[in-house]
Amino acid sequence: MNLGKNKPLNRIEGEFKDKIQDNFKRPLISLRISITNRCNVKCFYCHHDGMVPRAYEMTAEEMERIVRVAKELGIEKIRLSGGEPLVRNDIIEIVRRIASVGFRDISITTNGVLLGKLAEDLFKAGLNRVNVSFDTLNPETYLFITRRDYMEFARDGIKKAIDAGLNPVKVNMVVMKGINDHEIWDMFQFCKENGVVLQLIELLKTENCEESEFLNEYHYDMGELEGELAEISTKVKKRRFMQDRKKYFVDGGEIEVVRPMDNTQFCKNCTRLRITPDGKIKPCLLRNDNLVDIVKPMHNGYSDKELKKVFLEAINNREPFYADSNEDTCDSSG
């Protein structure tokens, strides 16, 4: 596919007129920064497979400079993730430095284990909201999934986040057939009682066809559940620029369903750039062959103007991973 490498990036008219768009007319609104590959749990479905060797990690100062340049390009939302971002000893400083730049929204995705100790300080540093990965209310199931006996710490983290003033607090529940699919409504009650939004996440597919056996064993199709939610909800909203993801309002609570991203709809509505822990801009979630290093140019003395050109190079590299011609990446014949 012709990426139009020499085509100048345009600004969008209307609501997002201050946003740069890529060559496929997608505005760039948010930046997701993975600040570490390290983690303190070992979820069996995680592609990091728990603790991984530590490579170079960006410093808080480097992240602050990167987001300053990103803001000049129109980025207005920052999400910090990992690994587990709260294992960083300087996480409060990271949030404080990013918040000093001035963004509409700063959020973190965490497993919640360390959140109880850090929630108040994170809020004071400038964090707006948090997503907590929390798949079960059953201690034995939690131990099976994470390989760690930390469930009470995670539950406490959710409640401390609410008490600290973070809003919204969301629980990310990866639903797996035969493991926790029977807990969906129990988790919904837990979230509703605590004023938390429940996000039900369908197990992620990847282009690695060798994982098909795993997916077949644990994959839970959300289609039937979404039909039920549509019938019983008092209101349904679509999240613009979030793949038209639906939010269902049920009995005073809120459920959001996150379907797999291996589809053209996900790519068509993608408005996010990503940064790897070692400081490379990742134009596409599902590709690693077009990364653009931004930390090395910083170390080589690049000015902010030159760093902006590095960002523009990455934006010019953005191409929908899934198009009609390549949406099916596995050979079904085996």
From TrEMBL:
Record's cofactor remark: Binds 2 [4Fe-4S] clusters. Binds 1 [4Fe-4S] cluster coordinated with 3 cysteines and an exchangeable S-adenosyl-L-methionine and 1 [4Fe-4S] cluster coordinated with 3 cysteines and the GTP-derived substrate.
Known cofactor(s): [4Fe-4S] cluster
Location of the Radical SAM core domain: 23-254
GO biological process, one term: Mo-molybdopterin cofactor biosynthetic process
Pathway: Cofactor biosynthesis; molybdopterin biosynthesis
The keyword S-adenosyl-L-methionine belongs to this UniProt entry's keyword annotation: yes
Pfam families with a match to the protein in the record: Mob_synth_C, Radical_SAM
EC number: 4.1.99.22
Binding-site list for GTP: R32, R79, T109, K170, R272, L273, R274
Domain of life the protein comes from: Archaea
Enzyme type, top EC level: lyase
Endpoints of the signal sequence: none
Residues annotated as binding [4Fe-4S] cluster 2: C267, C270, C284
Annotated positions binding [4Fe-4S] cluster 1: C39, C43, C46
SMART domains per UniProt: Elp3 (SM00729)
InterPro entries assigned: Aldolase_TIM (IPR013785), Elp3/MiaA/NifB-like_rSAM (IPR006638), MoaA-like (IPR040064), MoaA_arc (IPR013485), MoaA_twitch (IPR010505), MoCo_biosynth_MoaA/MoaC (IPR050105), rSAM (IPR007197), rSAM_sf (IPR058240)
CDD domains, alphabetized: Radical_SAM, Twitch_MoaA
Residues the record lists as binding S-adenosyl-L-methionine: Y45, G83, S133
Keywords assigned by UniProt, alphabetized: 4Fe-4S, GTP-binding, Iron, Iron-sulfur, Lyase, Metal-binding, Molybdenum cofactor biosynthesis, Nucleotide-binding, S-adenosyl-L-methionine
Family stated for the protein in its record: Belongs to the radical SAM superfamily. MoaA family.
Function summary: Catalyzes the cyclization of GTP to (8S)-3',8-cyclo-7,8-dihydroguanosine 5'-triphosphate.
PANTHER family recorded: MOLYBDENUM COFACTOR BIOSYNTHESIS PROTEIN 1 (PTHR22960:SF0), MOLYBDOPTERIN COFACTOR SYNTHESIS PROTEIN A (PTHR22960)
Protein name as it appears in the record: Probable GTP 3',8-cyclase
Organism: Methanobacterium paludis (strain DSM 25820 / JCM 18151 / SWAN1)
